[in-house]
Specification:
Structural class of chain A: alpha/beta
CATH superfamily of the largest domain in chain A: Aldehyde Dehydrogenase, Chain A, domain 1
Number of helices of chain A: 14
Strand order of the largest sheet of chain A: 10-9-11-8-7-12-13
Shape of chain A: globular
Number of strands of chain A: 16
Helix content of chain A: 40-55%
Distance between the termini of chain A: 54 Å
Oligomer: homodimer
Chain lengths: 423, 423
Amino acid sequence: MALADPSTDARLLVERLAREGRGAQATLAGMDSRARADALLAAAETLRADEAAILSANAADVAAGEAAGLTGAMLDRLRLDPSRLAGIADAVAAVAGLPDPVGEVISRDERPNGLVLERVRIPIGLIGIIYESRPNVTADAAALCVKVGNAVLLRGGSEAVHSNRAIHAAMVRGLASAGVPAAAVQLVPTQDRAAVGAMLAAAGLIDMIVPRGGKGLVARVQADARVPVLAHLDGLCHTYVHAAADPAMARRIALDAKLRRTGICGAMETLLVDAAFPDTPALLGDLLDAGCELRGDARAQAIDPRIAPASDEDWETEYLDTILSVAVVDGPEAAMAHIARHGSHHTDAIVTGDERVARQFLTQVDSAIVMHNASSQFADGGEFGLGAEIGIATGRLHARGPVALEGLTTYKWLVLGSGQVRG
Amino acid sequence: MALADPSTDARLLVERLAREGRGAQATLAGMDSRARADALLAAAETLRADEAAILSANAADVAAGEAAGLTGAMLDRLRLDPSRLAGIADAVAAVAGLPDPVGEVISRDERPNGLVLERVRIPIGLIGIIYESRPNVTADAAALCVKVGNAVLLRGGSEAVHSNRAIHAAMVRGLASAGVPAAAVQLVPTQDRAAVGAMLAAAGLIDMIVPRGGKGLVARVQADARVPVLAHLDGLCHTYVHAAADPAMARRIALDAKLRRTGICGAMETLLVDAAFPDTPALLGDLLDAGCELRGDARAQAIDPRIAPASDEDWETEYLDTILSVAVVDGPEAAMAHIARHGSHHTDAIVTGDERVARQFLTQVDSAIVMHNASSQFADGGEFGLGAEIGIATGRLHARGPVALEGLTTYKWLVLGSGQVRG
């Protein structure tokens, strides 16, 4: 309830920041696309120029994190070095170079009365980003927002507070040198948790919130926000190996989907194998031999003694680890029913040589991303050719799947007349 | 708070209806476009066939409304006659004939690794409609939702309860005759107000809510909903007559924008006249002569003694009546500042012969619809060539301005591979 009922101080702070951000956004939207891109290139340069200050601030965060007993994984997410910082600056420069969707005419129509109607892509306005310990989000999210003319209000985790401030200061200096008002990219100046609640409650002031972090953060944001949220809670990705799958392809895809990287939201968490697929022992054997723990239903367990029993909970667990649940299913309908019951509408895949079955699966599976004969690890904005992503969304409105620059825009209607009245 | 905390009974009822609706939606989405259109044509026929039953039910509502002392305007919105009912059936048939956006490939891209990415338009899922006394909404909203494969949960006003039930029964019978499950179009079977609160709270069960009715209803829905809402609260539409406006065109547009119909959301509510526009006395005189009450700032009042003083409140009042606020402004910047301060982001227009100034206005005014040399009364889905509209939205995400079939869809990503792994 603390989040839903922020203190007056936090509310007033966020209101002030949001109003300043919205004012700056009008200026940013008035700059042409080239000027915004140049400003991002300038910000990439100041990020490089401030290497010493940023790494020193980061060292303070890491030292504090070690003293506070953060886990190795958390410290790794927090830690910067010259190479990682160069990567952050490079990413900002890369965003500068992406095509800008703002100004695109989405549709154009001339009515019989001569009115011309255009839908034109414009920035959304002010985007709130609430994130945890990765300081690169400060630069990545700011760059994506600024590229398409949005202002951004950043609220990073307290573990990374010094790193975030140093990165923010460098970016704002670079952007300002190219005419972007400082308030276009703001970092909430307090770690008071009530500020997060105030952001979530700021309907009409903040146009959209993107949470970046673990499931706990995303769940809290989704539960409490009165502002639209772009996010996914789970990436409970299924791969269904159909009877007509090419065995070698199925084995290659299963290994990659599960084990290439286990910690990403596109990693396979449940493998559904058709009872009529002829090569299941080898398929499961590959995964077991590669060190993956398998938890199966009774039919899967019967295939290999190394397979442990799956509990009900396993079918709805995003392991993000070298663990996989496996069920043997009788045909596509059973596979799709399993996905409908247990899935998270993120990414689900079928492996089959039967185009008719593939089309049925692609049509009927209700997920943001549905794949045929590909590894679910491709669920990524970069792999989709979007250049970068602000996040992956499993909601049904506005933008779904990997959300990049276009998802950070909206549109308005222009009506171009020559004196028409409705009469 | 009653709305935000519905009774357990209401919550369970809405959960059951929503689950049934979602189940039916899967069937509806699996029908091809032609089958859904044919089902709507069948529903139009059953609406016509049930004329006697529907008009009899409506007579009961009208009699109850008269006994309850409803105003003449409310009774008029409620009342059906053979001609109005035929219009409702015709509208359902017209929706059947519109192009179906479902299945459209929004974008297609082939990656260097051979993966083909398609974004394909799909239904949203389950749409909630909360409306007041107009029984035609029952048929209109259901037709638009069904056309693109959405299920719909309808909650009409208690004044129209018998009319809504009769219209709903006729539609469901027609739809069912063509294979659409009854639960695809459901009418909440109770007038218990807690059911509205339960709909607003049904995040994850209802995908989007569209309120149709007065400002009180829309404000309550926007304040309490945890489900995304598509709506506009105010239509505080401005027309700015620039110095370089053609005087005859400006006078024609102003009369139409204000007086063609005063009760629609696209009606002009504030006229901004540039101090350098040479024909202001005639422009204002036309409106006064036509019976419009003008409330002006000091400079406007100085032009015609019939102009009353405007209070601060007038600049933010949607009159929906033969009343207009008028301010004299010094140039486009002042006009746009007035709109930014007082507007509702619905529809704003400029009249000018200066293309550069027009382009500036079209770019900088932050409204869902921005017009040049046209009457704001064109802010309407039919006039935009969309065939019909579910509503006009002033939010910034998903869909803006007149929202028709496309706004009732979303998309998913299809990834078509040939065995690709990320490796």
